[in-house]
Amino acid sequence: MIETKTQIENKTENIKLYSSKAISGATFLGGPLAAGYMISENFKALNKPDDARKSLLIGIVVTIILFGGIFMLPEHIIDKIPRQIIPLMYTGIIWGIVEWKQGDILKAHKENNNTFFSAWKAAGIGLVSLLIIGIGIFGYAYLESSNPAYEIYDTKIAEFSKNENESLTFYDNIEFKSNSALLSELDDKVIPKWEKNIKLINELENIDGLPSDLSEQNKTLLKYSELRLEVFLLIKKAVSENTDKYDSRLKMLNIEIENELKKLN
Question: At 58, phi and psi to the nearest 5?
């Protein structure tokens, strides 16, 4: 019996595959790990075990690099990235890879009316992948929170905040205080607290194992503290000289302080 062209080309008649659309949907839901698994399963069905192993390994490695990289980014940068951008980017990239590596096979499989795995199964794989990633993130966060550096950091930051709050009471009812009372408060309490805060931030930089995002935060805290100290030293000078000639400079410094506070928030 002579085989028809369709019979010769229908090399995937007795196997099930994941469609490009199903892989893309599961990828958006469960990340590169889901994509690596489903592409791997397609290669297994096509009797390409080496490609299957490589696909799964690449999916795992890319997932670790991707989410590890996201964790390393400072929080203020992460907050500026729209939530859908990263999933859309890696889903688009993986769709392109699937089309490149398996596109022709999947197209022929569809044209021959062969069987694909259901979208529900693909979605289930995406959810399982999401669960695995979630467990990994939780574990990472737990290990990070148990880092002794955090305990030291939190203790010093608590002292920093206490000094900050106590120093800012200087502005309470400032218009009713005498010059001598203002000068006494600046010398005895306010200025020493900001000198102490600058010392605390410098000490924080010497903590072993301090994460990069906290190190970046320290730079902002140091700039903020130096500006606060400069303001109070200038107020002391203005009160001592009984003059308002430093008002414009004080206004500029307070604008800079607001900018640094926005970075911290």
Answer: -65, -40
Which residues, including other chains, have CB under 8 Å from residue 58's CB and lie 6 or more apart? 32, 36
Q: What DSSP element (H or E) covers 258?
A: helix 247-264
At residue 212, does pLDDT exceed 80?
Answer: no
Q: How far apart are CA 15 and CA 202, in angstroms?
A: 64
Q: What is the 3-state secondary structure of 145-193?
A: HCCHHHHHHHHHHHHHHHHHHHHHHHHCCHHHCCHHHHHHHHHHHHHHH
- Between CA 73 and CA 85 the distance in angstroms is 15
Q: What percent of the chain has pLDDT over 90?
A: 68
* Mean per-residue pLDDT of the chain: 89
Q: What is the pLDDT of residues 15-49, one digit of tens each?
A: 999 999 999 999 999 999 999 999 999 999 999 99
d(Cα 253, Cα 247) in Å, to the nearest integer? Answer: 10
- Residue 148: what pLDDT? 72
pLDDT over 60 at 95, yes or no = yes
In the predicted structure, residue 114 carries a pLDDT above the cut 80: yes
Burial classification of residue 36, based on how many CB atoms lie within 10 Å of its CB (0-12 exposed, 13-18 middle, 19 or more buried): buried
Lookup: tokens for 33: 């790990």
> Which CA distances in Å does 7 have to 4, 43, 113?
5, 21, 12
Token couple for 28: 């958006």
